[in-house]
Every structure is written in C-alpha cells, then in structure tokens.
Amino acid sequence: MAQIGSAPQDFELIDMNNNKIKLSDMRGSVVFINFWATWCESCVEELPSIESLFRHLADNSSFKMITILFKDDGQRALGYMQQNGYTFPLYLNPDESAAKIFGITGIPETFIIDRKGNLRDKIIGPAAWDSPQAVASFQALMNEH
After folding, report:
1. How far apart are CA 3 and CA 42, in angstroms?
2. Contact, 53 vs 141, CB < 8 A?
C-alpha cells in the first residue's frame, strides 16, 4: 500500500474516450488524485471545490488532476458532470488497481503526489480544495524542485 514519503506503485487509468494514462506519465507535476462516485453524498458536496481548483490551476503545466470513479457507472458520472458544468478530468479504473494501491477505505479520498512522484498527503473525507490555504499548498508543491 502507498505510504506517505514514497512513490506509489504505477497504475493505468482510462478516460471516457478510452485513452490510457499512467501515473508515471505525470512525473514532474504535482498530481491531485481523488476517488469519488455519484452515489456518495460527501463526494458530490466536494465536487464544486474540485472543479474550482481545477479551473484555477488547469493552465499550470506543473499541476495534473485525476479523478477516479469508484464503484459507479461512467456514463452516469459523465451525465452528472455535464449537468453541473464540471470539466475536471474523469478516469475509470475497471480493475480497481488504483484503489488497492492507495488502500481506499471509503470515498471521497484524495492523494497528493509531488513532482518527484512521491505521495505527500492523504486526505480522507471531503475538503475545501479551492480554499486559499489549499491553493497555496499546491503552489508551494509546484515550486519545489
């Protein structure tokens, strides 16, 4: 299981157009990884702040966002996102390898990976991702070399 301070095992995700990405492809960027589902009330409450963070940092090449749908239907989630005007990236992980690597116990759970590929933080439960403190902490991580 992924431990804070070390690099998580690599995994592969697919987006809604069947494009594949790997965590290792993101090295050199700060990576925000969030597990969520449409049936999860606290996940749904957290999504506006995730969207706001994404819009705030989307133009920064040192920041990548991955949201992973957990035990939910991709088309339902896509419809939900479209209804709410969400534009953050949505990925599927059909074999649930990412959830196993991170040791998901419930959702939402969020993991922050630094530019060197190491797990820096694990947040269980919803958070205000667009708060000034949260944005400042991402800026600080992006400025690390």
Report:
1. 25
2. no
Half-sphere exposure of 113 (CA within 13 A, CB side): 27
Contact 56, 135 (CB under 8 A): yes
- Residue 35 near residue 99 (C-beta atoms within 8 A): yes
- A 10 A CB-CB count for 115 gives 19
Q: Are the C-beta atoms of residues 113 and 120 closer than 8 Å to each other? A: yes
Instruction: Give yes or no for residue 145 having a pLDDT over 80.
Output: no
Contacts of 30 (CB under 8 A, 6+ apart): 62, 63, 64, 112, 113, 114, 115, 138, 141, 142
* Percentage, residues of the chain above pLDDT 90: 94
Model confidence, pTM: 0.96
Both tokens assigned to 108: 């939402």
Is 75 buried (19+), middle (13-18) or exposed (0-12) by CB count in 10 A? exposed
